[in-house]
Amino acid sequence: MAWLQFVLLLGIMTALVVPVGKWLHGVVSGERHSAAERLTYRLVGIDPDERMDWKRYGLVIVVSNLASLLFAYLLLRLQGLLPWNPAGLNAQAPDLAWNTVVSFMTNTNWQAYSGEQSLSYFSQMAVITTFMFISAATGFAAAVAFMRGLAGRSGDHLGNFWVDLTRITYRILLPISFVLALIFVWQGMPQTLQGYASVTTLEGAVQRIALGPVASLESIKHLGTNGGGFFSMNAAHPFENPTPLTNALHILSMLLLPSSLTYAFGRMLGNVRQGWVIFGGMLVMFVGFLVTVYSFEQAGNPILSRLGADQTMTATQAGGNMEGKEVRFGIAQTSLFATTTTAATTGSVDSMHDSYTGMGGLVPMTQMMLNNVFGGKGVGFINFVQYLILGVFMAGLMVGRTPEFLGKKIEAREVKLVMLAVLAHPLSILGFTALAISLPGPLASLNNPGPHGFSEVLYAYTSGTANNGSAFAGLNANTLFYNVTIGLAMLIGRYLTLLPMLAVAGLLATKRRVPVSSGTLATDTVLFGSLTVFVILIVGALTFLPALTLGPIADHLQMIKGVVLK
Amino acid sequence: MTLQESSVRPVPLSRLLLSSLRAAVLFTLIAGLAYPLLTTAMAGLMFPNQAQGSLISRDGQAIGSAVLGQNFMAPQYLHGRPSMTNKTDGSGPQPYNAENSGASNWGPTNAKLSEAVRERVAAVRSENGLSATASVPVDLVTASSSGLDPDVTLASALLQVNRIAQARSLTPEQVESLVRVHLTPRQFGVLGEPRVNVLAVNLALDARQ
Predict the structure, then answer these.
(1) What is the largest CA-CA distance in chain B?
(2) Residue A316: closest CA among B80, B136, B172, B114
(3) pLDDT the model gives residue A164
(4) C-beta atoms surrounding A245 within 10 Å
(5) pLDDT in tens, A473-487
(6) Cβ contacts (< 8 Å) between B8 and chain A: which residues?
């Protein structure tokens, strides 16, 4: 039944690629502004006809993000004075509030706080839900601007950020989120402004039940690949994910826009095959990772078997390593969720990744290290194109020709910018991890001994840099050191990828198109797609295998040997 | 792709900053207030029960939520999964605390995990009169992710049938058939895993007497 679920959900995703891709392309390339959009431009005070080159587009992204950041920081710090705070929660401390706003602005959704204990209903809506729209639309807009540059139809102009932001929010994100939220409520997700409920259980105890406007946050959380949960335990909490259907919808809505973006890109280029090659490369890696995590988690933990826990799959139980997992999802849906959330840079979880087997936990970590399997709005797609350019460059070196990508010559400047983006990512992950584990203070935050403890730190900086937000959540990350350094990692991961790649797009856009000749390396073929996947895996392995060996791989070997650590 | 032709008119940074602040406020009003409030209103009209947390009442008193687990220790009730949630002020364990969801986050080789599983296996065996070597379904001795898992597997429910029957002076067959009635199959026959909602079974058990 596991395989049937995998085939079914990935089949639905693939079937939606063409219609949704066409729709996305129409939204971002249409000429007409709707009445609501024109009103928005007037209220904001911008000119929708301004055409932005890459520098301008990048500047507007940075300045507008900064403004949202400041405004949201203010709202969080004033939480105690604002309405809809039935639990009477105080404002977050300054370093925690900084970490929260950076996290949500960069689409990371790392949470050093627990939702039901730290945020009022007002903050959940006005800060968190708002950011989920803005940061998703920003990333999406950047990806679209990047594509326009590559398609090179509009000189050095990459579009208008305000128009992209508004259209993506109004035409795509808001309507889908609204419909999804209602389906979620039907399945059992709360959506209310009333205070926490209090019930008397069958055994006579008092159970206080945290409620809130959950469904409206959950739908955009996954559609926008944000990932920050309403409650501490995120999509594992039955109120965030009451049934297998909501779990499947969470998974599909995470994949919907990133996967369709590949097709929209193909249409924009006038070369649909190029889009499919990118989609295919991503899908192959996705399936490989999915099968890995499923196999290891289903096989279970031999230490627990020796203690008398039955982890086999039988007619009456699904079995597997069930520590930190929910019965309604079992191993199959949990594996699919974990693979999706780290592929699509979402970062929500419906299980605790910290309690996975070593090799099971390696999968989410590795996907964030590669950071380009589907990817969320923006960075994921852009990262894949980084590697396409790198692939073209390497192939060019091998055969001794000037590399070309989409009819444009790839020269020293572009390759330098690509390398800046490619190197900033591991530098942030490995540099901050090394710093944290060489200081005594940060080590006190570990929840697990041995290699698994090292994995907790490695996972934290990988997640922050990849703008993912999931965690090996045992790590106590709400300390000054982690709040600040993970905040920095999130900023590096977001803007040192986005800005150099926008620059590449801007540079390519102004280059003259080289006519296709017999010497041109075709980039829309299965052969080239395979080469790119190969480049991604080799570069990833060379960079991260040493760290992975110290963490999850050592962890797994110890587990097989039955080593128990105090 | 091309927007309407017009010349690039660079806007000074101060005006850009002002527009950005206005946009921040406007989008907060639309996406952060109008959208969730409209959703709340619609959800309240269409699904009033679920929107308020799917609360269940018995004799006019709210006794729990249909989608959340609650703590069961007494022998006459079906027991749910171990829960690692803490008291709301964090001062110690309180299983199934629905205002402070939580998990163990113990890794596979952590001694705390093996100790906990060893104790739980022993407890399940003695409570249910099993032999000292009987294996126990994994979900009944490992903590869930939310600490509020409302379900157990069919294997875990069937294992408890004899104990419940004895405590309630019913036959094991009566209890087993009641458990099987409350077996939720995979959704649409494909999605998720078959499961037994613990609170639903216990409500039905109480209603029988």
Answers:
(1) 87
(2) B136
(3) 96
(4) 18
(5) 889 988 899 988 998
(6) 50-53, 56, 157
Check A244 against B43: CB less than 8 A apart.
no
Count residue pairs from A and B with Cβ separation < 8 A. Answer: 438
| Interchain proximity B68–A40, CB inside 8 Å | no
Per-residue DSSP letter, A198? E
Q: Cβ–Cβ of B39/A231 closer than 8 Å?
A: no
Q: Does B19 touch chain A (CB under 8 A)?
A: yes
The interface residues of chain B toward chain A in range 164-183, judged by CB-CB distance below 8 A, are: none
Does A169 reach chain B within 8 Å, measured CB to CB?
Answer: yes
Q: Are A464 and A491 in contact (CB under 8 A)?
A: no
> Nearest chain A Cα to B139, which residue?
A322
Query: Does the CB of B156 have a partner CB in chain A at under 8 Å?
Result: yes
3-state secondary structure A72-127: HHHHHHCHHHCCCCCCCCCCCCHHHHHHHHHHHHCCCCCCCCCHHHHCCHHHHHHH
Q: Which of A44, A159, A317 sits opposite B153 (nearest CB)?
A: A317
Inter-chain touch A310–B155, beta carbons under 8 Å: yes
CA distance B119 to A329: 26
| Chain B touched by A144 (CB under 8 Å) | no
A37 interfaces chain B, CB cutoff of 8 Å: no
Cβ atoms of residues A313 and A321 within 8 Å? no
Q: Would you write out chain B's pLDDT as a tens digit for each of its 209 residues? A: 334 444 455 678 889 999 999 999 999 999 999 999 999 999 999 999 999 999 999 999 999 999 999 999 999 999 999 999 999 988 899 999 999 999 999 999 999 999 999 999 999 999 999 999 999 999 999 999 999 999 999 999 999 999 999 999 999 999 999 999 999 999 999 999 999 999 999 999 999 87
Three-state secondary structure of chain B: CCCCCCCCCCCCHHHHHHHHHHHHHHHHHHHHHHHHHHHHHHHHHHCHHHHCCCEEEECCEEEEECCCCCCCCCCCCCCCCCCCCECCCCCCECCCCCCCCCCCCCCCCEHHHHHHHHHHHHHHHHHCCCCCCCCEEHHHCCCCCCCCCCEECHHHHHHCHHHHHHHHCCCHHHHHHHHHHCEECCECCCECCCEEEHHHHHHHHHHHC
Mean pLDDT of A93-109: 85
- Tell me how close the Cα of A110 comes to any Cα of chain B, in angstroms: 16
> pLDDT grade, residue A346 (50/70/90)?
confident
Binning pLDDT at 50, 70 and 90, where does residue A153 land?
A: low
Strand B61-65 versus strand A206-209 pairing type = unpaired
pLDDT, mean of residues A425-432: 96
**From the CA of A239, how many Å to the nearest CA of chain B?**
7
CB-closest option in A1, A178, A200 to B61: A200
Please report where in the chains the tokens 């995590």 appear, as a residue.
Answer: A293
Interface check for A51 against chain B (CB to CB < 8 A): the answer is yes
Nearest-angstrom CA–CA distance, A77 and A433: 30
Tell me what pLDDT residue B1 has. Answer: 38
Two tokens at A162? 């305000």
CB contact under 8 A, A197 and B52: yes
Given this model, what pLDDT does residue A110 score? 81
CB spacing of A8 vs B54 below 8 angstroms: no
pLDDT band at A376 (very low <50, low <70, confident <90, very high): low
